[in-house]
């Protein structure tokens, strides 16, 4: 029977149709339905060995499959004139649009205002450099019997880094801190690579550098290549003619019957013979400074190598630059002939430039990235033609002393002429009001304080600030019994002690310079009750203190026109009673600085309409920084002055 059914498949098929009934939930499909079937080989069969196939049938009649035009259908439209025109039109529109965008971009680039140019200024051109005479800054010694009691130290500088930062100072220049023979100012060096114990230790210096670096403050040291102290091991060996040290200094046979007289007529800085007889060597040694500072023979390659090693030592400690002490006196005429005029063979020798170039090359090796430039500074008595040679050799900044010579007898025209002479030098200048070799500006007439402060900080160039300038410290009162300056003692000239008295920090004994029971190395200026650093603004004085004014002008100095702007106008007007100058940087606001230089207090009105139609006051010497001031219509209103020394700064 089974075989019969198998032999009649048609009959079997008919029987199966009769049994075909829809199951619950089953979807009926017909031959016209689109069917999607998914075979999933996964689950278990009826028995462990049976394969299991799951059929998933979708009856979604909304599903439509579009396979696009066939080749034959597409070709029917390819050459149709209508579609040909459409293609050409779209092609043309694409290229027209592309070209239009290209032209628009070019027009925008050419005609749109460009970003204002910012010159590549180095940090030593933009920052205020604060000079510290370390013996007079602050003494942190507790025990009066300790080494260095009464003498400022490195820890004292560390303690006041926040105060200097608050002022806006971003660069410190510290005078000699090297191990010395203890002769006054530390220039009688005994070891150029060691810290003198009176100032602290190498660890203290490293801490100072770490703190200043964290605050992005630069650190400059004195570099003293011209001479050493008499007690330096080199000089002791040179006197004994030991090995290479024999020619480390400049020796010559003395003259005269006693063989003790100078070999020529060269004079030192103080107008006295520049030679001193040494009884050990029985020759004369040369010294441009004091006899205690014998000059090194910088023509000797071994000495040059020593100087290079000193630079590299401190550069490796993170120092950002050097003030080259005695740069004008590095080399002398080799023939040692008499001079027709003083300094002919001993000052500004052209061979100096070769030395400075070699030092510049060393510094450049440590100036590996923008912002890490190393600076070389030097001081000169007067700016002259030879100064340009030092710039060409590698000196970056030479401070002008013009403002140190300014007094009440100079009117607006006098001031304009003096400043113009320096500005026209054509090199990057520095400005200073005083330093450790010149009288303090705080001792001029009081009405000139903010005049000088404004010129110092807002004229183009680097501002060098001597410690105490921010509070207009005055010259100290030094009695003959208190004189420490060896130059004054030896040559009976005015003592420099008056310019180097201890810094005044607070009210009280010793003004915060040292502990009450410690005697300062120089007397504190008792005239300091009116100028101590932190009094005026803490008491809320209605008139800004010099300290506050300093901060305001340093902040103003950071504006673009004062950073790199040119002096477009500088002149004396109104019968030489008003001096003004402008600072202009293309693309940035310009500034007018106007100063009343009248001989007496009186009402003065002057219009600056030739500069701009409208101006806004941003600083006034009696009020400090001004914000929200209404603009002044210069065509209808003049600027009014009433006091000598009154200063305005306007933006336009």
Shape: globular
What count of domains describes the coordinates?
A: 4
Q: Which spans have pLDDT < 50 for at least 5 consecutive residues?
A: 1-6, 42-46, 535-541
> Span between N and C termini?
118 Å
How would you classify the helix and strand content by structural class? alpha/beta
Query: How many distinct helices?
Result: 17
Largest sheet: 8 strands, parallel
Overall pLDDT score? 89
CATH class placement of the largest domain: Alpha Beta
Strand order of the largest sheet: 12-11-7-4-3-15-14-13
- Which value, in Å, is the CA radius of gyration? 42 Å
Number of strands: 24
Q: Helical percent range? A: 25-40%
Strand fraction equals 15-25%
CATH superfamily of the largest domain: Glycosidases
Oligomer type? single chain
The third-level CATH topology of the largest domain is TIM Barrel
Description of the structure:
The protein is an alpha/beta fold and 652 residues long. The chain folds into four domains: 78 residues, no CATH class; 353 residues, Alpha-Beta Barrel (TIM Barrel), CATH 3.20.20; 54 residues, Oligo-1,6-glucosidase, Domain 2 (Oligo-1,6-glucosidase, domain 2, Alpha-Beta Complex); 86 residues, Immunoglobulin-like (Sandwich). Helices cover 27% and strands 16% of the residues. The protein contains 17 helices and 24 strands. The chain has an eight-stranded parallel β-sheet with strand order 12-11-7-4-3-15-14-13. Helix 10 runs parallel beside helix 11. The radius of gyration is 42 Å and the shape is globular. This is Glycosyl hydrolase family 13 catalytic domain-containing protein. It comes from Sinanodonta woodiana (Chinese pond mussel).
